[in-house]
Amino acid sequence: MRPILRGISPQAVDFDPYTNAQKFLISRLGPYCSYCERRVATNLAVEHLQPKGNALYGHLIGCWRNFLLACVNCNSTKGEKDVVYSDLFMPDRDNTFAAFSYPPDGTVVPSSLCNTARLLSQANATLALTGLDKKSNIAKDENGEEVYLDRVAQRKEVWYVALDSKKDIDGAPGVGGIRNAVIKIALGYGFFSIWMEVFSSDSDMRKRLIDAFHGTRGSSCFDLATSQAISPSPNLDGLADGGKI
Predict the structure, then answer these.
(1) Terminal CA-to-CA distance of the chain, rounded, Å?
(2) pLDDT in tens, 57-97
(3) pLDDT in tens, 89-134
(4) Hey, what's the signal peptide range on this chain (predicted)?
(5) How far apart are CA 79 and CA 58, in angstroms?
(6) Strand positions, DSSP E, the chain
(7) How much is the pLDDT for 173?
(8) How far is CA 37 from the centre of its chain?
(9) Which residues of 178-198 are buried (b: 16+ CB within 10 A; e: fewer)?
């Protein structure tokens, strides 16, 4: 999960209807699911952290601080689950990049920083919240080629794309135009954390990625000079139970 800074609300009152917040969220965070990180060109939902269908949180339906963005898969899996911030890592208040690792097989797993029972429990609960712990349903076409349908398979595909892009850069390390082109490719696919993982040894590309994905640099979850993760998150919005890892 990409850590983000949502910032203060662009208006003084709650959103009514809440869907009016979508354009502001996309402007600040980019057209990406706040959980699985994939780019969603259409039908990117204004996601309520505390579910709007739960009567306990009716007062938060139009509240800016209760909004993220979510794809249909993450949003439907999360559903009406109660969100206990102290038990989870959330991208608007924790350095979620530091909490998870992204292997080439397309899975998402707790990172090595989750080295206590408490941290591991929080990481696993976060993955379960939106189904990021689900296994891939591998599909193949009539030629036996894999078709990238679900979130796991799509992450696996982007791993291959990112690796090819890295080869292009490594083959012409001084050509800035190639680096700019790769950033555009990354923005087109999404999955920020995979690109950061693939370019783990290239601080220049990582800094470009951090700057390119809206809302990431503002989170202050990455060192300006080295691009390394700063954890715990500074939690600049001052949100409850933030900065846990």
Answers:
(1) 13
(2) 999 999 999 999 999 999 999 999 999 999 999 999 999 99
(3) 999 999 999 999 999 999 999 999 999 999 999 999 999 999 999 8
(4) none
(5) 15
(6) 45-48, 67-70, 100-101, 109-110, 139-140, 146-147
(7) 85
(8) 4
(9) bbeebbeebbebbbbbbbbbb
pTM listed for this prediction = 0.94
Helix (H, G, I), strand (E, B), or coil: what is residue 22? helix
Q: Is-contact 113 99, C-beta < 8 A?
A: yes
Mean residue pLDDT across the chain: 95
Q: Residue ranges of the alpha helices (H) in 56-191?
A: 72-78, 96-99, 117-129, 151-171, 176-189
Calculate the dihedral angle through the C-alpha atoms of 208, 209, 210, 211, rounding to the nearest 10 degrees. 50
Structure tokens at 31: 């057209």
d(CA 95, CA 174): 32
Rounded CA-CA distance 16/58 in Å is 13
